[in-house]
């Protein structure tokens, strides 16, 4: 869970919507589509065998509704399936052919679409990542030296980042376009003046970018990969993180430091899987540092949605959060961003308490600190 947007509303203001990772499926695919898909990727040396299997499949399909020929069907299955394994079709192709031969009823399985979590790019940053809630150890003060390269050159030029964010060139192109668009948006203009540089503006915009991948997959997004490595507490991991992400973090923190502070109460919801660890580890008066960019919301109802049934809500007394919604790809309200340098103290009793709506809750108070130390 990390910074970008909350809400059920629309996308970014104006244009500048990130590229979609995948196209929509055809609504009326021909019945031969499974056969065509099955052949795709077959090695050239066994193409003839593949077409033989396809022909046999067509014959089988024409026979399977004739009760008197069930015996023939059984023989076809017993002969064709071993051949299928022998020619080593790609896994997905093999699955398609076997499904066509055997059918859902033969295997006792009925295909159903897997439910999605309902998370959209506008809300993905507010969904807690696995293990995030227990990455709480206080870190040594980290200095983020000024890089010699621009933000986008830092992003595209580092091989480690390119390995993590495979579509980094697309992301950079989106960010450049969105940053230029925002210069003509009235609501963004005062914040852009505060930031005072293209590097800073692009750094914040890049953090809000989302690839909009299938099944709400976060891997490959800048915000996700950067935050995952920022949470690493090992000496080796932090050295690698600084070498890869140090320039990007510097540009981001420098820009955020220039924005107006938000002071007030924010919330972050964690799912039921994190509840036992939070209630045990977030002991009264314990210092807490998440060590990564963290998105919170001023709307407790939104935090409850992200926590889900049996989850836990952390209530935070914030002194210097940042509202970056006017600069986001997904323009929404009520999200406040915290920095990797933010430190907190647990002010509620160990084990938390039951708040409104029956949710377990833990209270934190922000300690004084600086956004950027360089």
Automatic annotation (TrEMBL):
Keywords: Glycosyltransferase, Membrane, NAD, NADP, Nucleotidyltransferase, Transferase, Transmembrane, Transmembrane helix. InterPro entries: ART. Residues 1-26 are annotated as: Disordered. It comes from the Eukaryota. Its EC number is 2.4.2.31. Residues 1-17 have a biased composition (Gly residues). Pfam families: ART. GO terms for molecular function: NAD+-protein-arginine ADP-ribosyltransferase activity; nucleotidyltransferase activity. It catalyses: L-arginyl-[protein] + NAD(+) = N(omega)-(ADP-D-ribosyl)-L-arginyl-[protein] + nicotinamide + H(+). The chain crosses the membrane at residues 68-89. Belongs to the Arg-specific ADP-ribosyltransferase family. This is NAD(P)(+)--arginine ADP-ribosyltransferase.
